[in-house]
Amino acid sequence: MKITVNLYATFRAGRLGQEQRDFLEGTILREVVAYVGIAENEIGMSLVNGCHAPMEQVLNDGDSIYLFPLLGGG
Description:
Number of helices: 1
Mean pLDDT: 92
Structural class: mainly beta
Oligomer: single chain
Order of helices and strands: EEHEEE
Distance between the termini: 41 Å
Shape: globular
Helix content: 10-25%
Low-confidence stretches: none
Strand content: 25-35%
């Protein structure tokens, strides 16, 4: 199944900003995050098709994932 992975802000450093890849049926968000080489504790927000999604979210063919880093400031 094809999944589109979109990375934002510092997650783009050394990686593509958007990439479409083939994954096996039953793949969960956590597995895609590991595939792109991002530690889960660095993720501030994860979306699947524009909706907040937990790391255990089962993905479907054609899904788009959006990963944002933690933000600091004040």
